[in-house]
Every structure is written in C-alpha cells, then in structure tokens.
C-alpha cells in the first residue's frame, strides 16, 4: 500500500446509561483523567466523555456516550468484546488487584494470556475490561498518567492495550485487517475449540494489537449499556487520512468519507462482520479550547455547535466534573 502503517489504537468508544456514575468510576476508581466533557456530535442531546492519560495523548482514550435509556447488553458475536488497558509492570497488577477489591469491583484472578500478565474486570454496567502488563512490551509507547490522579503514577493506566473482536467468521475480518488496513498476522491458534488470531500494525506491541476470536456458536450481540460502540486506529495526519479515504474507495469498501470531529479528523467503515472501525488523526488534540490545567472541567463544544450551546445545555443533565 502507498500508505504509512496505522500507528495502533487511537480510542475506544463505549456506551453508558449513567454519566455521573461513569465519571466516578473511571476517574475515582481507575484514576483516568477526564480530558474532555463534550457531546456526541451525531446526537448533541447526549454527553461524550473522554478519559485518558494526562492530556489525552492518542492511544490513551477510553470514551463514553451517555444513553440514559440504554438497555441491557446481551453478549455475543459481531462485537468488540474486550477493551484492555495498559499498566507499566506485573507489580502494577498486584496493586490493581488490591484496589479493585477495595472498591468492590468484580474481577478475575491475575493470569498470563498471549505472553503477558493480565487482570480482567467489569465496571458497574458490565463493561468488559482487562488490565495488561507492559513489562515485556517492546512496541508502541504508552502515555503518561496524570500526576493528580488518585492512583500512584507508577501504577497508573498508560493507554489502550489489545482490543478483542468476537466474530462468526474470522477470515472475513482478517481479510479487512490485512488486505485493507495493512495489519500483519502475528499468531493464530486454537483457544479451546475456537480459532483465535492476533494481528498487529506499526511498531506492534501492546498498543497496536487486535485479537480476533471466532465464535460461530454464539448469537449476534445486542448492544446496550456496557457495550462498545466502535474502535478507532491512529493515523498521523489529515493528509494521511485523505490517502486512506482514497484507498478504501479504490477497494470499494463503503465508508463515511472525511468527518470533522474538531479534536481529530476521522473516517468510518464497517468490516464484513458489522464491526464499526474508525481511523482518526493524532491531532489537533484536546487543548484547542481548554488549557492543560483545566481539561474536562466545563462542557466543550466544537465551534460549529457553539450557536446551539443554550439549547444543548438545556437538554443535558448537569454533570459536575470539577470535584
């Protein structure tokens, strides 16, 4: 491909039914920084919350759309079934096991998966999460935890790790990842009776892997609160993003074309198993409308929504993010 490789994960966007409790959990328990309190630009009546490292560096964002009436998630295929979060070391997982127990968070035991130590857990809505140790990581660098977090910096979450997709037909997703997106297959094996493949891009490592699990025995997932909406992958610039748009057109892969998100520029498309992928630029970032010291404290609206601010704020339930 006449394209630079994708750089790894950019962000993962999920669904919550309760922005207030979501904010409490991800900042007070997980210690992430809310770097932007904004709106879903496709539905300005709901919040879009961005949690990340100290300044929302690309590859560190876990974001949520608040949909107050979101129903229960019925787990299954055609889904982004696990989001992992990076920590510095195996010792950090011991810290986190104790912390999750202290806050009565549902979790599994520490185990070794795909050559790394991991600790799986669920948030208050059943969002499927996993902490993954970077002790042996030699790929994409992580971010920098916020020094005002309740979690000590040495154990803080440094970004997104591997994202897991569960699909009824692994080959269909593999073809898109390899042929259309330039990933390379790193491993392929049976996990129980099910085929699993691991793909990586760019520098590889924890922050640039996609795990695909084939489960033809499951029903299609019915998303709701605690499910993932889409995963985004990093493109270094707008110029490069426009090359990707042309590339997907040549492949006749249906896509959104260029989408302005203000904090980054995007392109959306679905793989043949129906999973929503986004390509997003590394910049401009989150400090264009707020200073580093005050990120996430007020409702931020892209300039093209400012003339609707009064109407938008009237529809949103107040959410105090200055405490």
TrEMBL record:
Pfam families named among the record's database cross-references: Glyoxalase
InterPro entries given in the database record: Extradiol_RC_dioxygenase, Glyas_Bleomycin-R_OHBP_Dase, Glyas_Fos-R_dOase_dom, VOC_core
PANTHER family: RING-CLEAVING DIOXYGENASE MHQA-RELATED, RING-CLEAVING DIOXYGENASE MHQE-RELATED
Annotated protein name in UniProt: Glyoxalase family protein
Domain of life: Bacteria
Signal peptide: none
Domain VOC: 8-134, 159-282
Species this protein is from: Halalkalibacter akibai (strain ATCC 43226 / DSM 21942 / CIP 109018 / JCM 9157 / 1139) (Bacillus akibai)
């Amino acid at each position: 491909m006449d394209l630079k490789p994708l750089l790894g994960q950019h962000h993962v966007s999920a669904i919550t039914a309760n922005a207030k409790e979501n904010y409490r959990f991800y900042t007070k328990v997980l210690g992430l920084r809310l770097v932007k309190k904004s709106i879903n630009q496709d539905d300005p009546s709901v919040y879009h919350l961005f949690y990340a490292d100290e300044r929302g560096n690309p590859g560190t964002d876990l974001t949520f759309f608040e949909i107050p009436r979101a129903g229960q998630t019925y787990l299954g295929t055609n889904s982004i079934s696990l989001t992992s979060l990076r920590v510095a070391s195996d010792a950090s997982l011991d810290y986190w096991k104790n912390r999750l127990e202290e806050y009565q968070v549902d979790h599994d035991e520490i185990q070794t998966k795909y050559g790394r130590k991991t600790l799986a857990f669920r948030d208050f809505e059943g969002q499927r999460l996993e902490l993954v140790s970077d002790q042996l990581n030699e790929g994409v660098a992580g971010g920098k935890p916020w020094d005002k977090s309740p979690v000590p910096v040495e154990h803080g979450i440094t970004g997104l790790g591997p994202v897991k997709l569960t699909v009824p037909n692994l080959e269909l997703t593999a073809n898109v990842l390899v042929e259309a997106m330039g990933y390379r297959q790193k491993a392929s094996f049976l996990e129980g009776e099910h085929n699993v493949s691991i793909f990586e891009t760019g520098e590889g490592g924890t922050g640039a892997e996609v795990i695909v699990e084939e489960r033809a025995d499951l029903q299609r997932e019915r998303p709701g609160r605690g499910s993932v909406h889409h995963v985004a992958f990093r493109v270094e610039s707008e110029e490069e993003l426009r090359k990707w748009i042309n590339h997907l057109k040549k492949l006749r892969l249906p896509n959104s074309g260029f989408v302005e998100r203000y904090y980054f520029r995007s392109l959306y498309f679905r793989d043949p198993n129906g999973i929503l992928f986004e390509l997003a630029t590394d910049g401009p970032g989150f400090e264009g409308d707020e200073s580093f010291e005050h990120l996430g404290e007020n409702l931020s609206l892209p300039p093209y929504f400012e003339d609707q601010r009064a109407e938008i704020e009237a529809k949103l339930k107040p959410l105090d993010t200055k405490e």
